[in-house]
Amino acid sequence: MPFEMVRNDITRMNVDAIVNAANRSLLGGGGVDGAIHRAAGPELLEECRTLGGCETGEAKITKGYRLPARYVIHTVGPVWHGGTNGEKELLSACYRHSLELAAENGCESVAFPMISAGAYGYPKDQALAVAVDAITAFLLDHEMTVYLVIFGHDELITGKKLFRDIREYIDDIYAEKHFHANIEHSRRRRWQEDEESALQLDMEISKSIADQACYGAAPVPSAVPKEAASMPDWKELLKQTDEGFSQALLRLIDERGWTDAQCYKKANVDRKLFSKIRSNPDYRPSKPTALAFAVALELSMRETKELLKKAGFSLTKSSKFDLVLEYCINHKIYNIYEINEVLFRFDLPLLGSGMN
Ligand code: AR6
């Protein structure tokens, strides 16, 4: 996955470079800075002494010494003074400069802590938003795997509106499930019936097309509802029913006139995995990957279900993950990073995929 949020201690990250939220002296301190120096050993401080400090918003690189990471990139975040002193631009510059330095040094994977979000007092939600924007902007024209490491479970407690709305939505559904078992039961039956009538419709459409192939122009079967009768091109529909996930995906990309890169970047899927999907018509993605493409392509709920079906999946009301996706797609929230932030807060799998 090109961009991923993870819960971890950054000193344990097995990546090419980890980023340190340092101070301008670069001579160590508390928080993540202290943890990195302790884990890397005294040689790190020795090398830092040779660097002559670092300005706010800039970045410098050293070796990683005893850390699993090859390099440490030291950046200095802004101290929060209320948000009117250029804090956002400076924080964004920290991410950009660190990533540029990582690219110059051939790093393919980099892990960041939430710079400035501890001792420097930057409000966590805002710090997170700046981090996500800066990292995803960089990834638009670079191939790299970037982790944003969230430390501890209390990090993102407040949550923004979208998270609260979705939590409410899920709570409502769960409450209904627990306290109105009968309603739930009849709902289930209705979904089942919907599914059955959809299946019935599929069968009738297929039969009609088969008739058309045998006897020429076929009339619309009388049992097919009006909406189905106005469907554009039945032959096309059957062709689409037959195509696999990979073919469907490539067709949808073509229909939009997009390049592959526009699509896989929007889907938070890495280039290597996309090449694999492109070259293998039988490729079966994981559910989060299939959904990542549905979101990137801004599919409707119905189109999403069709695409998922081609990968062998469906959406259910009893899965929190599915409910988050259902809410977002129904509300036309197609920013994958925004959705991933919500999934992350719920401790659910994130959308997108990589080869590793
Ligand atoms: N792994 C990942 N994230 C961590 C870890 C860890 N081991 N430890 C803390 N964090 P802070 P700042 C998170 O205070 O706000 C230092 O003394 C932490 O929860 O380390 O940029 C420097 O020398 C928070 O979300 O850095 C500077 O003087 C984030 O890392 C000053 O603090 C940053 O918190 C820099 O302050």
Description:
The protein is of the alpha/beta class and 356 residues long. It folds into two domains: 3-150, Leucine Aminopeptidase, subunit E, domain 1 (3-Layer(aba) Sandwich); 157-180 and 234-356, no CATH class. The protein contains 15 helices and six strands. The chain has helices spanning 31-40, 42-49, 87-104, 124-139, 161-179, 181-215, 226-229, 234-242, 245-256, 260-266, 271-279, 287-296, 301-310, 320-330, 336-345; strands at 3-7, 17-22, 59-63, 71-76, 109-112, 145-150. The protein has a six-stranded mixed sheet, sandwiched between helices. α3 (87-104) crosses α4 and α12 (287-296) packs antiparallel against α13 (301-310). It is elongated, with a radius of gyration of 25 Å. The termini are close together. Mean pLDDT is 87; it is low at 211-227. Ligand AR6 is lined by residues 9-11, 21-23, 29-33, 35, 77, 113-120, 149, 151.
What CATH architecture of the largest domain do you see? 3-Layer(aba) Sandwich
CATH fold name of the largest domain = Leucine Aminopeptidase, subunit E, domain 1
Query: What's the CATH class of the largest domain, please?
Result: Alpha Beta
**Outline, from the CA principal axes?**
elongated
Distance between the termini: 8 Å
- Beta-strand fraction estimate: 5-15%
Q: Can you identify the CATH superfamily of the largest domain? A: Leucine Aminopeptidase, subunit E, domain 1
- In quaternary terms, these chains amount to single chain
Q: How much helix is in the residues?
A: 40-55%
Mean pLDDT: 87
Largest sheet: 6 strands, mixed
Number of domains: 2
Based on CA atoms alone, the radius of gyration comes out at 25 Å
Low-confidence stretches: 211-227
